[in-house]
Amino acid sequence: MTGSISDYRPDDHALTDQNPAPGVWTDDIELPDTAAPLLGENARIRLTVTAWA
Length: 53
Fold this sequence. Notes:
This protein has 53 residues and is mainly beta. The protein has one helix at 36-39; strands at 24-30, 44-50.
């Protein structure tokens, strides 16, 4: 695996909010196939963004 996670741009996944709560945004980002041997076939990163108060 080369590069860093911050450089990864999924080709076919538009980010969508999976959390209906106000002030919170959550989505799962699929990792590239090269991550499968290390992390498993369905490896994802769950990104959650909340408002800074």
